[in-house]
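Tip: read the tokens left to right.
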């Protein structure tokens, strides 16, 4: 509006006095700071609003060049460039935010517009600078921007800011290295739940302070908080892995030093995953993934330590995880089958005591895979229960077939329960469902578990075993020594059989050592006291089997009988033993 009035004043003919009066009044009363300049950009007049904005009398601005109002060199350059484009190309400057100097308060953020007014002579023009205060708005925007990219609790950059910093660091080229360190406070939930969220927050602030003290200023280092108790460190420069590892170890030591809050001396341990590589070697996604994997391995290895990313180990893990990801499809496509291992009575090896049933995976690319190659992956992917259900169903179906064919000569079937299935609350229902489906008495089934499952605090093994024993199922505990054996009286386990494995069996493979024999005899004697039948697994030769028999072991399985047998092979074996 102001410019329109001014241009009217110039164009009005023959008397432009009223328009000039209107312009003069608006110019004087305008809340926007205005400076009128000569064609060279030298200020010839400034209104009161501009003087107030810059902390001086308007007259003090006369004779100064418009660019000279800029606070820093780049502000001066932007005003000079805008003035040049206006006067030579006729291009007004769009509103631009920059810093002008206040006479007392220093740099001030303002929005400026550079335009021109036509002169008295045709084709002549005079520059006009219009200025509005943007300091509060700019500072508010800066605060909001800071909040958007910084963690409110610790003041560290947040995940968004860290992602941007990582992309910037990897955008370069050359021989520089970049290191990414993921740190996770071990057991932070214990602190938070035990001492309260307020103490937990103070601990996180302490962690942030200690990490900054170690890494800030080292190799262009920056520290960020990514999640509740997760932090990240980014380093860039010319360094070697031992230098980064030394800093990480220093940080872990600093974190372990207690800080005193609310009368409690609190020290924390942390796990760290480290990845180091050339700046130009791959994108941020690969780097982040590698750091996460290294951190996960550090936690798996026992926490309170660091782990360096290993590309070869990662390649092997990728293959394993790919295998785990397709278990569900493999089960649906019929790639799993039962594999059997016969258990014979050592006093009469022609008599089958039981047949152990397990799973084998006929993978289309990797060939035959035993259960120890895929059960751990099934545990991760949640496929243990479906596999266990299938194992129970198929092994009991085979048992029903043997009973129909061989009558009383048919052996019991023994199923080794993986940990996740042994602690499953619905284990009893799963077993009973399959027994009823195949019209089998519970006595035809032996269920084997181990120490890990019995002691799992999150499971219901003891309750499940009590109910299964009441149904008539035969329960078996795999043991490797006296401690395992004593779980039976300690927890009142309704176990009827124990299976020896590991060193106590292996020790008799090549001969008889007095200490090993004494250990075995102690186990056998204690098993008899508990009225348990004792067997062994992993028996490799007939001499070993005979030694075990001589010292009281009743039954055994292993390669001295057969490593494994398919469905048809076990049918032939049962028939041969039955006759």
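Filled-in amino acids:
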């Amino acid at each position: 509006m102001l410019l329109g009035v001014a241009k009217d004043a110039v164009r009005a003919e023959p008397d432009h006095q009223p328009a000039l009066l209107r312009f003069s009044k608006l110019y004087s009363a305008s809340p926007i700071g205005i400076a009128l300049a000569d064609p060279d950009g030298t200020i010839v007049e400034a209104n009161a609003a501009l003087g107030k904005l810059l902390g001086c009398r308007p007259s003090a601005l006369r004779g100064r060049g418009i660019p000279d109002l800029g606070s820093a060199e780049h502000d001066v350059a932007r005003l000079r460039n805008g003035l040049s484009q206006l006067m030579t190309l006729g291009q007004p400057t769009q509103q631009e935010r920059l810093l002008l100097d206040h006479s007392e308060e220093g740099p001030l953020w303002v929005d400026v517009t550079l335009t021109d007014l036509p002169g008295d002579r045709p084709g002549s023009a005079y520059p006009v600078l219009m200025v509005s205060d943007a300091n509060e708005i700019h500072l508010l925007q800066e605060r909001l921007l800071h909040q958007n990219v910084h963690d409110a609790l610790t003041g560290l950059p947040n995940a968004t800011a860290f992602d941007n910093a990582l992309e910037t660091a990897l955008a370069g080229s050359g021989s520089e290295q970049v290191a990414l360190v993921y740190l996770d406070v071990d057991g932070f939930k214990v602190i938070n739940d035990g001492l309260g969220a307020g103490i937990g927050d103070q601990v996180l602030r302490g962690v942030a302070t200690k990490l900054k003290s170690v890494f800030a200023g080292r190799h262009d280092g920056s520290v960020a908080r990514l999640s509740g108790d997760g932090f990240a460190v980014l380093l860039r420069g010319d360094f070697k892995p031992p230098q980064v590892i030394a800093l990480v170890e220093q940080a872990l030591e600093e974190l372990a030093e207690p800080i005193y809050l609310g009368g409690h001396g609190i020290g924390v341990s942390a796990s760290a995953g480290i990845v180091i590589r050339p700046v130009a070697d791959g994108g941020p996604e690969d780097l982040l993934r590698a750091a996460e994997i290294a951190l996960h391995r550090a936690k798996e290895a026992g926490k309170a330590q660091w782990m360096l990313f290993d590309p070869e180990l990662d390649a092997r893990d990728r293959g394993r995880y790919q295998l785990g990801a397709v278990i569900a499809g493999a089960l649906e496509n019929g790639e799993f089958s039962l594999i059997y291992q016969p258990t014979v009575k050592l006093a009469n090896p022609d008599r089958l005591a039981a047949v152990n049933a397990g799973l084998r995976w006929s993978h289309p690319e990797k060939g035959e895979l035993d259960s120890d190659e895929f059960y751990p992956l099934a545990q991760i992917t949640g496929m243990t229960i479906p596999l266990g259900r299938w194992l129970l169903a198929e092994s009991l179906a085979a048992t029903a077939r043997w009973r129909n064919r061989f009558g009383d000569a048919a052996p019991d079937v023994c199923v080794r329960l993986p940990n996740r299935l042994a602690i499953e609350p619905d284990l009893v229902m799963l077993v009973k469902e399959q027994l009823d489906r195949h019209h089998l008495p519970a006595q035809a089934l032996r269920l084997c578990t181990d120490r890990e499952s019995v002691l799992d605090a999150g499971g219901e093994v003891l309750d499940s075993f009590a109910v299964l024993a009441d149904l008539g199922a035969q329960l078996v505990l795999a043991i490797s020594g006296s401690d395992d054996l004593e779980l039976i009286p300690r927890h009142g386990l309704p176990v009827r059989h124990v299976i020896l494995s590991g060193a106590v069996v292996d020790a008799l493979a090549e001969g008889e050592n007095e200490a090993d024999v004494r250990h075995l005899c102690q186990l056998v004697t204690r098993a008899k006291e508990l009225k348990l039948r004792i067997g062994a697994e992993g028996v490799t030769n007939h001499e070993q089997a005979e030694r075990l028999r001589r010292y009281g072991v009743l039954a055994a399985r292993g390669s001295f009988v057969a490593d494994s047998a398919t469905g048809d092979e076990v049918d032939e074996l049962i028939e041969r033993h039955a006759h």
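The mean pLDDT is 85. The first strand starts at residue 33 and ends at 37.
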